Amino acid sequence: MTRGSILEYKEAVRWRYLNAKKKEKGRILDEFVQVTGYHRKAAIRFLRRDGSDQSTKRRGCRRRYGDEAVEALRQVWEASDRLCSKRLQPFIGELVRVMRRHGELAVNAGVEDELSRMSAATILPREGRLRPWRRLGGRHPLSTTKSGSLLKNSIPIRTFADWSEEQPGFLEIDLVAHCGESTAGFYLTTLCAVDVASGWTECMGVWGKGQQRVGSAIHQVRQRLPFPLLGLDSDNGSEFINQYLYNYCRNQGITFTRSRSYKKNDSCHVEQKNWSVVRRLVGYDRYNSHAALECLNLVYAILPRRTSLCQFLPAHDEASVQDQAGSQGA
Questions:
Q1: Given a cut of 70, is residue 31 above it in pLDDT?
Q2: pLDDT tens digits, residue range 252-284?
Q3: DSSP letters along 246-309, please?
Q4: Domain boundaries, the chain
Q5: What is the fold of 152-329?
Q6: What are phi and psi of 63, to 5 degrees?
Q7: Looking at residue 191, what DSSP letter applies?
Q8: Which helix (H) or strand (E) holds 68?
C-alpha cells in the first residue's frame, strides 16, 4: 500500500476504532495490521492520533549555531588553507581573533564565542558542505620518471610499512615537474621532501632534473630541517638513483632506500604533498626561467612554518611546539 492509501484507510476506520468496545477494537486492530503491515503498537498510536495534530517540529537537537557563525566558519576555514576539522579546532579561537584584528573577519563577540566553542565533531559536517568538489579540470600531472637501473641492486627497497613513524628524520622525496602540457624540452622541477614521523614538509625549486642539481637541493633541504636527516626514500627515477646521491648518502651516514616500481603507495606521504602543497600553490603551468625559479624558492622559503607547524599542532604537546617554533625563529 502507498502512504496515501494507508492514510485513507486510517480515516475510514479511525472513528469506528475509537468508539468501539475492547473486543471490537482488537478485531479492528487485527484487520489494520494485516492490511497495512504495521506493528500492533504502532497501529494503536497511529489510529489514536488525529492527522491534524501531527507535530511539525524538526527532529534532532536544537540548532546551536546560526547562519552567521557558519559563514564565519567558512571564512576561517578558507584562511587556514582548508584544514580538516581536527587540525583547525585547536587554534580556531586564536585564528578568529587574529583575523578580526586585521580586518579580515567582521563578526561580533557572540559569533566569535560560538566559533571558539565549536568542537571538531561540530565543524566536520559543516566542513563537508563547504568543501568544493576537487577536480583537476581535465589536467593530470604528466609522469617524467625514467628508471635508473644501474644502482637498483645496491639500494634496498622500502615499502610504506617499513619505517617507524616515531622518530623524525626519515624523509620521502620526489620531483614535481613544471612542464605544462608536454615533457619535451627544458622545464623547472620542485623537490618535495616530507618527514614520515612529523609531516614536516620542505620544497625546493630545481633548475631541471640533473643529478647534481637535485643532489644540491637535497643538501639545502637537509640544512633547513629542524632535526637531523637520518634517511631518504625515493622513487626509481634516475634523478635519485644515481652515483652522485648514492655516494652522498653513504659518506654522510644517511640511509638511502627506494620504493617498488609502480607502487605509489610506498611513497604515500610525499605523493599527497605533491598535490596538497606544490600543485595547489604552483599549479600545472610550464616554468623554465631563472625568474620563475627565484619566485618558486621565495614561496618555498616560508612554506615549512605554514604547512608543518600549524597543520600538525594537534599531534604535539604545547611545550614541544613552542620549542620547535622558537628554534625556527632563532
A1: yes
A2: 999 999 888 777 777 788 988 888 889 988 999
A3: HHHHHHHT-EEEEPPTT-GGGGHHHHHHIIIIIIHHH-S-B--SHHHHHHHHHHHHTHHIIIII
A4: 3-50, 68-130, 152-329
A5: Nucleotidyltransferase; domain 5 (3.30.420)
A6: -65, 125
A7: E
A8: helix 67-79
